[in-house]
Amino acid sequence: MQLKRIDIYGFKSFAERCTIVFPPGISAVVGPNGCGKSNIIDAIKWVMGEQSVKQLRGKSMGDVIFSGTDKKAAVNMAEVSLTLSGISEQAPASVSAYEEIMVTRRLYRSGESRYMINKQPCRLKDISDIFLRSGMGARSCAIIQQGNIGAITDATAEERRTFIEEAAGVMRYKTRRQEALVRVKSTRQNLDRINDILDEIGKQLEVLEQEAETARQYNARMDRLKYADMLISVYYYEQYERRINENRQLLQRLKEKDELNTESLEQLNTALQEIEARRTHEEKALSGLRNQKTDLQRSIDQTESRLQHLEDEQSRLTRELSQLQESLEKTRQKNQQIETEIRQAEEKAQSLESEIQELQSSLAQQESASDHDKQRLAELKQQLETHKKNQSRLSARQAKYNNVYSTALSNKEQIKRRLKQAEKEKNETADQIAELEETEADQQQRQDALNQEKTRLESEISSCRELLKEQSQQLHAQIKTVNELQQSRAQIKSQLGVLKRMESNFEWYKDGVRAIMQVRQTQAGQSGFDPTDCLDIVGNLIEPDPGYELAAEAALGEALQYIVVKAAESGIRAIDYLKHQNAGRSGFIFMESGGQNSENPGKNPDTTLHEHPKATRLQDHIRTRPGFEPVVHSLLSGVGVCDDLQTARSLLDPENGFRILVTKEGDLAGAPGLMIGGSKDRLAGILEKKQEIRQLEQNLAVTNQQLESAKGVQENLEKSVRGHENQLAGLTESSHKCQAKLVEVDKALYKTGESLRQARRRLEVATLEQQRLEGEKQDIGQELAEHDNILAEIDQQMGDLESGIRDTEAQIRELEEQIRVQQNARMDIKLNVTRRSAELENAQSTVARLKSFREESTNRISEIQQEMDHKQQQADKAGRQIEERQKQLKNHKQEMAGLQEDLRSRQSDYQSLVGRQKKTDATISGTQSELEEIRKKIHQIELDLSGLHINQENLVNRFLEKYADSFEQVRTVYRDQVLAADFSIEKAEKTRTDTREKINAMGEVNLGAIEAYESRKQRYDFLAGHRDDLMEALGDLENVIRKINRITRKLFLETFEAINRQFSGLFPRLFNGGAAWLELTEPDKPMETGVELMIHPPGKKVTRLSLLSGGEKALSAIAFIFSIFFLNPAAFCLLDEIDAPLDDVNVERFNELLKIIGENTQIIMISHNKKTMEFSDILFGVTMAGSGVSRVISVNVEQALQISKQNTHGNHNKGSDHAAALN
């Protein structure tokens, strides 16, 4: 194994991460004092497992962590890693497969430490094992710290032995031997403890065996009682089961009938729903047909009214066209006539112009007025004609609207009657809905109440079951507690009985004491010996305070077994009795001896006791039976008690007044120079036994109280469980009744809901019908209002026309009268002039009038033609509309006939459906009544079944509470037996009663005795087997130790001889003469002997190694260490300034040997010697700058020397070659 590299971080002065690669051969670490060279050696030792802070030159392990400087902050951890190569085959299997391994140790400032191999966490033992198997270790001779080279010669012979043992490779065997010795010691201690336990258990087994037999009898009777209980329970269970089966059969028949009725009822309901659906459909269809008929009738009426209007309009237009045509013809004829007359008048006027000129001035005014009046008269006549035409048209229109208005009034009255009927049906349906809603609300409220009641009952049932379960568990636990207390009480009674029997038989006392006290009990004295003179034993007269039993037993010693007698003569007679009976020996103390000190208090030794803070009178801690104080006082006079034996020795001074001092542990000190003590475990005195009896009596009293209390709690729990069982049965029955009521309410609520839905549908239909009729009424009202407005307008127009006609006719008559008057006046004027003038004027007047007529006639012809064209268009349009309305009216009448036929058919189907619905309702009502009766019977049977099941459950629960067995299995086993004809329930119950009385007569029985006996017996057997195993293991360990000793002895002696030969030859080589050898201090004890160095430098005879100089000591130690290296080369060697005491000559000799060793061992040494530096293969320089942090630089010595020579000859550049020498 080779040390390849070390990585240091935070260890001592290496605050920064530093890596040093060690090549094979000799490496020297150099540097000024205090730069941290030795810290490298410490780091290697630390990671190898060194646990001694002193060896690491510190006071605490935290000192290895860099603590900081003025310029560098402290770090929180120290970590060192060693990279090792060339792992030997002897290494542990976990690392032997690796060519290289990295061993790491890390320490945090918090104190937490970690060990790792290849960066995986491991134990310190794993790391130590790696180095130990390769012959290395933190304390190996291959690691020599600064100043320790001379310590090898100054070491003891035993310490030098370890170097040879390490070289011999026996350190592993020593470790195993030490582990085996520890195990041997532990095994022997275990054997002692097991033997003590076996003795104690053996005594207990004798008592437990008797109690176990009683318990077995008790268990046999309990088994008989359990057998009778099982038969009785199975019998009543089967009776319940028989009744359950009968009820189930009846329930099955009723349920089958219920299913048939339910199925029939569902079919009837389905049929009823279908009938209702069809009825609703027929109602909707009838309503639709009626609405359709009404709409169609309204359309027919409207069409007929419109057709009549169109025909009237067409007739009027035809008449008007005819009249216009006649008027046109007349106007044309008149126009032709006027044209003729105009020509004649003009001719006559031309001839009469001369005649007219004279009369023109007088006639001009009359002619002008006459023309105006005539024109006005023509206009009035035309206006009168127009009024008459309009009056005729309005008359026809008025007649038409009067007919429509009469029809609308008739329809309105009919709708009012239907609205009244619909309102009545709606109100009746609304009242029915209100009643049904009120009924539904009541039923819903009752349903909610029943649901709440059901929920409450279910909650109470659940709570009751949980509480019953909880209390049943508590009852089981309490029964278990009572049984445990009974077992505990029986165990205490057993132990107390054993101790009391031993006390009553005086088994704790000597034979002589036992013989006297037994005679005293029987009152059978002999040879003048009166046993009544023996009052009692001293041990029975005192009761130490708790904790002072051992002190009292130590102070009294044998006096505890002294018998107190009335007088000395009584003691003598008792002794004679013992001699005569050959019954042993006994001590006696008579009452008079105890009273002597009491009569003279001034001589009482206790009066001389001084109060002392470390000791008190033992008598102050002991209670004495009244009347026997002098005896106890005489025995304990001058006896004190203190904390420990050392204090007792210091207080044994006459001035303190103590003649004897004892401790609570039972140690005793008395003058002169008397001490008694030892292990308190072995003390089992009389007072302790009595204290144990008192403690057991107290425990028994406490246990009795606890048992009575526990039984009271058990009784209360049993009462509570029975009460909750009854409460659960009542709640269950109430829940079933509530469920039955809830079913009835659900049915009623369903019926009410169905009735309510049907009533709401009827109300909806009535409302829709009412809305439709209201719409029709509103439409008719609007139509009547429109007709009223139209008729009023027509009446107003007719009145206006009649008034206009009358006014026009009056104006015409007045104007005609005026024209006649004017004509008479003209005639008078014409008569007053010449006839010619009159004729001329007449001619001129005629020409003008004819021209005016001609113009009017022409205009009139144009107007008549335009009006005729317009009237013709209206007449044509009216004809077309009449044809369309006639076709529409014919279609409506045909459709009305089909609707009336459909309506009659639908009405017949609807009446048939109503009849079927009534019949189905009656059938459903009868089926429901029968179904309710069946379900009442079913419910009653279910209640009976529930009660029977509850009885069964209670029976099973009581059985489980008693025996915790599977009732089904018990039932399977005993069912045939209880169903047999010869089975008698009375006999079984009598057997149970008799057995229970016998069990009660047995009194208290320690049921745990069997288990305790078996347990103790098993434990005894187990411990006995364990004892045998330990003895076998002890033999194996002793064989292993003997084998290790044999191997170790052989390896040690062989290695010692080999090292001695090397040392004898190497010493003269280093000293250039002289002699040296090794000697064993105890050759006959090679396992314990030490090793002495016998040193004789040249020319000297040294009797002691301490007389050697420092250099001689160093060379002697080097010779010894190198002798070991030659025999068993180490993997690597760490030497810290071991050449410091040597001069130059000895350094050269040292280096020569070191070179030889370096061929097989990797050497890392710290040195200030120049020759050693030159001798090394590589130098590692350690420096420390002002920051207080160590740094390392390496130099290859051979390369550096070659570069130096080359630089001298100037062959190479100095800077680059110098850099090549640096790693």
TrEMBL record:
Coiled coil: 686-944
Location(s), subcellular: Cytoplasm
Record: residues binding ATP: 32-39
SMART domains per UniProt: SMC_hinge
Domain of life where this protein originates: Bacteria
Gene Ontology molecular functions: ATP binding; ATP hydrolysis activity; DNA binding
A single GO cellular-component term on record: cytoplasm
Disordered, as annotated region: 283-313
Keywords in alphabetical order: ATP-binding, Coiled coil, Cytoplasm, DNA-binding, Nucleotide-binding
Domain called SMC hinge: residue spans: 532-652
Chain intervals with Basic and acidic residues compositional bias: 292-313
InterPro entries: P-loop_NTPase, RecF/RecN/SMC_N, SMC, SMC_hinge, SMC_hinge_sf, SMC_prok
One GO biological process term: chromosome segregation
Reported function: Required for chromosome condensation and partitioning.
Family from the record: Belongs to the SMC family.
PANTHER family membership: STRUCTURAL MAINTENANCE OF CHROMOSOMES PROTEIN 3
Subunit details: Homodimer.
Domain characteristics, as noted in the entry: Contains large globular domains required for ATP hydrolysis at each terminus and a third globular domain forming a flexible hinge near the middle of the molecule. These domains are separated by coiled-coil structures.
NCBIfam families the record matches: SMC_prok_B (TIGR02168)
Name assigned to this protein: Chromosome partition protein Smc
Taxonomy of the source species: Bacteria, Pseudomonadati, Thermodesulfobacteriota, Desulfobacteria, Desulfobacterales
